[in-house]
Amino acid sequence: MLQRARLFDLAQSGGLALNRAADHAIGLLLRAAPARRAGLRRLSVSGHLFDALLLGLAGAAVLLTLGARTLWTAFRVRTGAETEDEVPEPTPRKDTPSRAKPHPAGERASKRAGALAENLKKWLAGRGPKE
Question: Fewest C-beta in 10 Å: which of 24, 58, 71, 100?
Answer without folding.
Answer: 100
